[in-house]
């Protein structure tokens, strides 16, 4: 699916160029936890740059990493793990790595659930199905496993995990009743579609590795630089904070042990 989007973008650019138009299309690979916050940021970028079209594909940061290594035609990569963009830079496949946020993790249960998330991760012992992002390629999945291990509950519930391809799909499993509880991104449960659905409890940040999120430019696109500057500028930072992200410089104020 991502390749289909990428190929379509290349064709569109070629057609515009041949017709003498000035429209530029910027293809963005973005971590799934950014879905709602980035949509607002994109709207700002679009208003300020009407000649540029921003096309965003949301998904797993690890899967995007492999797709970009294999030549997927993205212009900007926004990862939920800052190590992934740095890896691309080290391999000569990206430039200008930048941090933009620290993700936060919550235990979320649907409406009318007998589970009370305020009791912490121990309540997962009573859940039949627990959704998380796939830890093999999703940073939020790795963080979820780590938090459950810290709580001493992982071994008991590991055979009940339902794995989403990314953290947004893991949240969808809870919303649709395919999971009794989920360990997902705070940014998703604060979004309009999920804000009033179920109950959540934020998992202490000292129980899992910091979800330090970063990005990088894959191409030398002026539109990609514009979007990066908005994300890391005052307007973008305000939106990210409203969706529950911690800003990079405030990482140590959370009490994370990595500081």
Intertermini distance: 39 Å
Content of β-strand: 15-25%
Structural class by secondary-structure content:
alpha/beta
Mean pLDDT: 89
Radius of gyration: 19 Å
Number of strands: 10
Outline of this structure?
The chain has helices at residues 2-19, 35-48, 61-69, 83-90, 139-150, 154-157, 167-175, 186-189, 222-232, 234-242, and strands at 24-31, 52-59, 76-79, 95-103, 105-109, 130-133, 161-164, 181-185, 199-202, 211-217. With 259 residues, it is α/β, with parallel strands linked by helices.
Topology:
Blueprint: H1 2-19, E1 24-31, H2 35-48, E2 52-59, H3 61-69, E3 76-79, H4 83-90, E4 95-103, E5 105-109, E6 130-133, H5 139-150, H6 154-157, E7 161-164, H7 167-175, E8 181-185, H8 186-189, E9 199-202, E10 211-217, H9 222-232, H10 234-242
Task: Please describe what this structure looks like.
This protein is of the alpha/beta class and 259 residues long. 38% of the residues lie in helices and 22% in strands. The protein is built from ten helices and ten strands. It has helices spanning 2-19, 35-48, 61-69, 83-90, 139-150, 154-157, 167-175, 186-189, 222-232, 234-242; strands at residues 24-31, 52-59, 76-79, 95-103, 105-109, 130-133, 161-164, 181-185, 199-202, 211-217. It has a five-stranded mixed beta sheet with strand order 2-1-3-10-4, with helices on both faces. It has a five-stranded mixed beta sheet with strand order 7-6-8-5-9, sandwiched between helices. Residues 1-20 have low confidence and may be disordered.
List descriptors.
5-stranded mixed β-sheet, single chain, disordered N terminus, 259 residues
